[in-house]
Amino acid sequence: MAPTTHDTDLLIVGSGAAGMTAAAVAAAEGLRALVVEKTALVGGTTAISGGMVWIPCQEHLRAGDSVEAARRYLDAGYLTRADTLVGLAARLGIDAGELADTVAAYNEAARTGVDLEFGRGADAYSRYLGDADVGPNPCLAALATPPFFAIALVPSDLGTAAGLTTDPHARVLGAHGAPVPGLYAAGGDMRSIMCGRYPGPGITLGPALTFGYLAAMHAAGAASDDPATSR
Ligand SMILES: Cc1cc2nc3c(=O)[nH]c(=O)nc-3n(C[C@H](O)[C@H](O)[C@H](O)COP(=O)(O)OP(=O)(O)OC[C@H]3O[C@@H](n4cnc5c(N)ncnc54)[C@H](O)[C@@H]3O)c2cc1C
């Protein structure tokens, strides 16, 4: 591909929430903004955020849920089904004794309502995500009635917390704490304002949008010294 040249006032790397917000705000403020994206897809992590695990009859996912959908997931191998825990362990290729011990400990937590191992249902947010019809802890329903189902869960990154240090205008700060002229960071590239804590959903997307906005406003010369009073 032949190299091309573009003149731009603001070069934005990445088409996620932070980048697209900065681009829209920069354009609205009269800057020529150019977004460069390294993948074939526009939207980055932002476009797939809010993804959920599909679990049959889960209270928050009942819309569109059906027996046919459950059959499709079974046929596709997403769900594994067995009439006994021993049978389920065999299908999953895991140790039946360990599965029985795990389920017994879990069922005891479901009975008392206190999850000593993972703390499920210990705060209002996780209880909201549970099933209000289940008690004493809406996040813990005893595994007692066959058939039993299993879903493979694979941990992955949701975001980052340790990026570039910035000031309230999203300007990147250099080693001596002074802003690097013309360089901004927002979203996953910016050191989280929460310093690694995760108080709840929105704490990564919210600052990505906010600091994308603040960066573009500053680049356009439209920021006030107090970001709270920026337009
Ligand atoms: C499944 C899932 C669910 C989530 N749910 C929530 C939620 O409920 N609430 C919440 O607040 N957050 C959630 N998050 C986190 C949130 O989506 C991200 O923190 C946020 O989208 C990051 O936005 P961003 O603009 O910084 O980066 P991204 O959206 O990741 O965009 C970065 C873009 O930059 C591109 N890029 C990278 N390097 C280059 C390069 N060198 N040149 C050109 N382009 C480049 C990438 O390809 C990408 O398109 C979730 C994330 C996931 C994965």
Annotate the secondary structure layout.
Blueprint: E1 10-13, H1 17-28, E2 33-36, H2 67-75, E3 80-82, H3 85-92, H4 96-112, H5 124-128, E4 148-150, E5 171-173, E6 179-184, H6 205-219
Parallel strand pairs: 1-2
Antiparallel strand pairs: 3-4, 5-6
Bound molecules: flavin-adenine dinucleotide.
Flavin-adenine dinucleotide (FAD) is lined by residues 13-19, 36-39, 44-46, 48-51, 158-159, 187-188, 201-206, 208.
Gist of the model:
This protein is of the alpha+beta class and 231 residues long.
Walk me through this protein's architecture.
This protein has 231 residues and is α+β, with helices and mostly antiparallel strands. The protein has helices spanning 17-28, 67-75, 85-92, 96-112, 124-128, 205-219; strands spanning 10-13, 33-36, 80-82, 148-150, 171-173, 179-184. The strands form 3 sheets. Strands 1-2 form a two-stranded parallel sheet. It has a two-stranded antiparallel ribbon with strand order 3-4. A two-stranded antiparallel ribbon has the order 5-6. Strand 1 (10-13), helix 1 and strand 2 form a beta-alpha-beta unit. Helix 3 (85-92) crosses helix 4 (96-112). The longest helix is centred in the middle third of the chain and has 17 residues, at 96-112. The two termini are 41 Å apart. Flavin-adenine dinucleotide is lined by residues 13-19, 36-39, 44-46, 48-51, 158-159, 187-188, 201-206, 208.
